[in-house]
């Protein structure tokens, strides 16, 4: 039986929220999806019947291997679509999320496999996030938040986490794009804002911004 649009949205939420132990709470899902907890509970009971999660009252959910794969395949469709829109249709990286939200619910594996082939099997989406393969496997990345770095370091902008269009526009306006080298000049002790240098130009980033930027050394 095909997954419903609502089920796919829950699966995608599980993908984003699950911790390194494969756990996530009902409350976290409720806040992330902006859905009342009784509704989340009911859906997770259905997921347990499908063996996507292990559901126990008053305990965190545990996502099964089957659940991880199902979640990754939804994310695969979303990220492939975003890459196609940027690489083949010349959309900006800040303009693809909403379209991908709609197309990710298309139920045709061959459609997305063909998209993957046309793109020459990309490993990452336009925002630097890994694209799961057709079996739901995903590349592990050794990245950290820019906010966790220290003054004097030079790092490479590798990915953006769950960012909305306004933040992507904010980055584009400052020429803060993937694979750019970021020199960390100063970190304010008061508000943890960063003074950085990119392409010889200085910018000041808030803690909110540096928390969303993932880098590699």
Automatic annotation (TrEMBL):
Quaternary data: Homodimer.
Annotated SMART domains: HTH_DTXR (SM00529)
Role according to the record: In the presence of manganese, represses expression of mntH and mntS. Up-regulates expression of mntP.
GO cellular component, one term: cytoplasm
Name of this protein: Transcriptional regulator MntR
Alphabetic keyword roster: Activator, Cytoplasm, DNA-binding, Manganese, Repressor, Transcription, Transcription regulation
Organism: Chryseobacterium endophyticum
Keyword Coiled coil assigned: no
GO molecular function: DNA binding; DNA-binding transcription factor activity; protein dimerization activity; transition metal ion binding
InterPro entries: DtxR_MntR_Metal-Reg (IPR050536), Fe-transptr_FeoA-like (IPR007167), Fe_dep_repressor (IPR001367), Fe_dep_repressor_sf (IPR036421), FeoA_core_dom (IPR038157), HTH_DTXR (IPR022687), Iron_dep_repressor (IPR022689), WH-like_DNA-bd_sf (IPR036388)
UniProt record similarity statement: Belongs to the DtxR/MntR family.
Principal cellular location given in the protein's record: cytoplasm
Subcellular localization: Cytoplasm
Highest taxon above the source species: Bacteria
Positions of the HTH dtxR-type domain: 1-64
């Amino acid at each position: 039986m095909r997954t419903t649009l609502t089920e796919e949205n829950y699966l995608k939420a599980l993908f984003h929220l699950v911790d390194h132990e494969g756990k996530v709470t009902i409350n976290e899902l409720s806040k992330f999806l902006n859905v009342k907890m009784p509704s989340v509970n009911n859906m997770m009971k259905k997921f347990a019947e499908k063996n996507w999660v292990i559901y126990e009252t008053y305990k965190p959910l545990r996502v099964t291997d089957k659940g991880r794969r199902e979640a990754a395949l939804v994310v695969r469709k979303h990220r492939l679509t975003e890459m196609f829109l940027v690489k083949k249709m010349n959309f900006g990286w800040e303009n693809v999320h909403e379209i991908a939200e709609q197309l990710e619910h298309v139920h045709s594996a061959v459609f997305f496999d063909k998209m993957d082939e046309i793109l020459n099997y990309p490993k990452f989406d336009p925002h630097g996030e890994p694209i799961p393969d057709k079996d739901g496997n995903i590349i592990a990345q050794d990245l950290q938040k820019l906010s966790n770095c220290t003054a004097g370091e030079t790092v490479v902008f590798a990915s953006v986490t769950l960012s909305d269009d306004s933040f992507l526009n904010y980055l584009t306006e400052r020429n803060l794009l993937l694979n750019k080298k970021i020199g960390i000049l100063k970190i304010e002790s008061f508000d943890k804002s960063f003074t950085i240098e990119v392409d010889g130009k200085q910018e000041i980033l808030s803690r909110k911004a540096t928390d969303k930027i993932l880098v590699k050394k």
